[in-house]
């Protein structure tokens, strides 16, 4: 099963926003992008399982304007990116951004739009600070409701 391993938040102040999440939840800073990155600059955090990108985007990938802030996209770790790309396209997913084979762009992955326009990435390798597929343990029982008072 594929696993969500990345969430990107669009913000106007990546450093301030990242500091908030680091202090609030003790997330660890794992990387920063520099001004030369053509897609965005910002801070990458991790809880040991998930990569959280806090970014100021340089292009309007969502069609919501450059002032948009909030959850921008999510990323799914898959076993085979080529196979998943074919499956997603067969299901009507729109692949709108894919790096060239030799392109080195840090955390950039293959970008899609789902049927409702939601943007998501797929990758065959974990994002920085995120867990690989083979180490995942699933919850095997449903959460029990709290006893009535």
Largest beta-sheet details = 8 strands, mixed
Radius of gyration: 17 Å
Q: What is the CATH C-level name? A: Alpha Beta
Give the overall shape.
Answer: globular
Stretches where pLDDT falls below 50 for ≥5 residues?
136-146
CATH architecture: Roll
Helical residue percent band: 10-25%
CATH topology: 2,3-Dihydroxybiphenyl 1,2-Dioxygenase, domain 1
Topology pattern, helix = H, strand = E: EHEEEEHEEE
Number of strands: 8
Oligomer kind: single chain
The side-by-side strand order for the widest beta sheet comes to 2-3-4-1-5-8-7-6
Structural class from helices and strands?
alpha+beta
Could you please describe the fold and organization of this structure?
Helix content is 15%, strand content 32%. By secondary structure, it is of the alpha+beta class. The protein has one domain (3-126): 2,3-Dihydroxybiphenyl 1,2-Dioxygenase, domain 1 (Roll). The chain has an eight-stranded mixed β-sheet with strand order 2-3-4-1-5-8-7-6. Strand 3 (40-46) and strand 4 (51-57) form a beta hairpin. The longest helix has 12 residues, at 14-25. It is globular, with a radius of gyration of 17 Å.
């Amino acid at each position: 099963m594929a696993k969500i391993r990345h969430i990107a938040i669009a913000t106007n102040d990546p450093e301030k926003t990242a500091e908030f999440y680091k202090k609030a939840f003790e997330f660890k800073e794992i990387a920063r992008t520099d001004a030369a990155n053509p897609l965005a600059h910002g801070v990458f955090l991790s809880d040991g399982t998930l990569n959280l990108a806090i970014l100021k985007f340089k292009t309007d990938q969502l069609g919501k304007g450059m002032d948009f802030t909030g959850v921008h996209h999510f990323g799914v770790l898959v076993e085979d990116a080529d196979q998943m790309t074919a499956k997603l396209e067969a299901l009507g997913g729109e692949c709108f951004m894919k790096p060239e084979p030799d392109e080195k762009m840090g955390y950039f992955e293959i970008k899609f739009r789902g049927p409702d326009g939601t943007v998501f990435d797929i990758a065959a390798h974990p994002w920085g600070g995120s867990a690989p597929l083979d180490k995942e343990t699933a919850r095997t029982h449903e959460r029990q409701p709290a006893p009535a008072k």
